[in-house]
Amino acid sequence: MLLLILSLILLLPTLIGWGLIAEKSFRFNLTGGISGKILSGILFLSLILTVTAFFFGINIYIEATILCIGLSYFVKEKSYHKLFTFFKNAGWAFFASAIICVACASFYPFILDHFGYYIPTIRWLSEFGMIKGISNLDLTLGQMSAWHIFQTGFSHFSDPFLRINLLVAVTYLIYIFENKNWVHLAFFPIFLFFLQSPSPDLPAYVFSLIVVHEILTKTQINSGFLAFSIFIFTIKPTMIWLPVFVFLIMVLRKEMSLKIILSGTFVLSLFIIKNIWIFGYPVFPITVFDLNFPWKPNPEMMRQSSEYAVLKTYDAQYSLEQIKNFSFKEKITNWLFISGVKSIFNIGLIVSLLFYGVFTLIKKEKKHYILFGSLLLKSILILSFSAQYRFFMEVYPVIFIAIFYTSNIRKFSVFMFSAGSLATLSFLINPEILKYLVPSFRLGNTMAKFEISQLYKPAEYFHTEYDSFKVGNLNFKVSKKYPFNYETPAPAISEGFMFDYQKLGIFPQLKNPENISEGFIWKKIDAKEHNELDNAIKVIKNNYQQP
After folding, report:
1. Per residue in 389-446, pLDDT tens?
2. How far, in Å, CA of 194 to CA of 173, rounded?
3. Cα separation of 34 and 484, whole Å?
4. What is the signed CA dihedral for 389, 189, 221, 230, rounded to 10 degrees?
């Protein structure tokens, strides 16, 4: 916890400094106050780091430069006066809330994507930057969220434990206390489960809630909101509804300008170019708008990925053959009533949308019509592709804010925050409670109990062992008796993809064996390469037979 607090002391002024640079250099404004400057700094730095990652690894020298520039501007503009004033006036409630966030962030990571997606992505970005066609090596790496590019910029010494989401939570608290928007506290405890990993879900949810609240409560929208909403979309593409909402509101209020359009277009263009560079298509994992780039993934791999998404829709409780034979009615009912806790979220989505739809008809305000339409569009798209509950989690707090943002529910929100935070800490300290209460919550099996060392530094898992192989011109590693790459040195391939490659008779290869930075392609393997792959698979299988 101590090291996390020191990290916050370093990161907050740095981002305020970068936010000031964005505001003064480009007249880029989001919300007022300290929180607005932090958000501007996050966006501005993320864009800079994304451009940088096309050419270089985001290494320790780049991080040092970021810190020096941000801190220098923070001191030059004497922003420490405003920061100290806020801390002085915030009161004990803010500090107590922040300490709860720090405590929760100190626990072991338990989200599975932390080991198979977040950490490997950050390691690649740190060492090599963005590699063309990296999705051919490991399809998971083709996602490469803008949030992981941002996290990589602080991953060497200012946030080596990769708890950047703690910064998001504290920034959110600053926004709440600055603006006295107590309604946000009611569902804040849910976000405490996202602080142990650099999950892109948390910034996507939190930032979208801030944007929605600002638009609903203010008659004039700041010029940076369209670009910021598109940035949130680049963090998590399932947030497609947010830029649609902001764009339509700006058109309705006649606030659209050439500057706003150009800034939004730049952020979107950078996102599309990034995706084409690493994945071969404009938006991961969708294979529409095929421009036939030679580094795009194998079509059969993408077909398997699509089938897996369908299985995940029904929590893998039905086979593909069963799902294909479902009638329309069966598709809906089986999704709504799948076994386990996820059924609650699925039913909750439909009920929430129906409730907000009725509310919108009663209020008869255009902003609610637009918000409801945007959320409905997102829900239809998600239901069409892969209706996993985690893809629409933000819908609930968005609707809650839309309904209650004008209500005086401070006492209720504080009670929900207090009770929810206590419950969350209890679950993290003793995960057996959560596993007992919700047996179908599988992540409870990966949660570990509190350790006294967390008072000093956050808990981390040890590095995994690995085997080294060569197939064709590619030397690579595979984690030993472990399905994810985690911190296995690059280039690494998840063992699951090894079996897929064997089945399809393909394998990733370096475009230039002398220079990994030129990227990866896939190719049909010949007899010699097939034999090399078979031998590697034998080693992987034998590892599991050993004690």
Report:
1. 778 888 999 999 999 988 888 899 999 999 999 999 888 888 777 777 766 665 556 6
2. 15
3. 39
4. -40
* Residue 186 CA: distances (Å) to CA of 89, 98, 383, 418, 434: 22, 15, 27, 9, 20
Whether residue 285 has a cis bond before it, omega within 30° of 0: yes
Asked whether 403 and 356 are in contact (CB, 8 A), the reply is: yes
Q: Residue 479's beta-bridge partner residues?
A: 466
Q: H helices then E strands: how many in the chain?
A: 24, 4
Those residues with Cβ within 8 angstroms of residue 312's Cβ, 6 or more apart along the chain or in another chain? 386, 388
Query: Average per-residue pLDDT in the chain?
Result: 89
Q: What is the pLDDT of residues 258-302, one digit of tens each?
A: 888 999 999 999 999 999 999 999 988 888 888 889 899 999 988
Cβ atoms 97, 417 nearer than 8 A = yes
Both tokens of 442, joined, read: 């599988």
**Of 124, 130, 134, 137, residue with least CA distance to 508:** 137
| pLDDT classification of 521: cutoffs 50, 70, 90 | very high
Q: Which of 279, 285, 289 is nearest to 302 (CA)?
A: 285
Q: Which residue has the tokens 């966030």?
A: 101
CA 241 vs CA 89, 124, 187, 466, 501: distances in Å: 36, 30, 21, 41, 36
Cβ neighbors of 319 (< 8 A, separation 6 or more) are: none
CA atoms within 13 A on the CB side of 267: 24
Q: Is 196 helix (H, G, I), strand (E, B) or coil?
A: coil
DSSP reduced 3-state for 78: coil
Handedness of CA 202, 204, 205, 206 (dihedral sign): positive
Residue partners of 437: CB distance under 8 A and separation at least 6: none
Owner of token pair 């994810």:
484
User: What are 506's strand-pairing partners?
Assistant: 524
Give Cβ neighbours of residue 235 (< 8 Å, ≥ 6 apart): 145, 146, 147, 200, 203, 204, 207
Residue whose C-alpha is closest to residue 163's, from 48, 273, 10, 296: 10
Question: Which helix (H) or strand (E) element contains residue 523?
Answer: strand 520-524
Q: Are 82 and 106 in contact (CB under 8 A)?
A: no
Amino acid at 200: P
Q: What angle do CA 508, 463, 475 make, to 5 degrees?
A: 25
- Phi and psi at residue 412, to the nearest 5°: -65, -45
SS3 of 416-468: the string is HHHHHHHHHHHHHHCHHHHHHHCCCCHHHHHCCCCCHHHHCCCCCCCCCCEEE
Kindly state the DSSP code that residue 544 receives in the 8-state scheme.
Answer: H
- CB-based burial, 366-378: b 16+ in 10 Å, e otherwise: ebbbbbbbbbeeb
CB-based contact 346:395 (threshold 8 Å): no
Please state the rounded mean pLDDT for residues 103-111. 87
User: Nearest-CA neighbor of 456 among 11, 8, 102, 67?
Assistant: 102
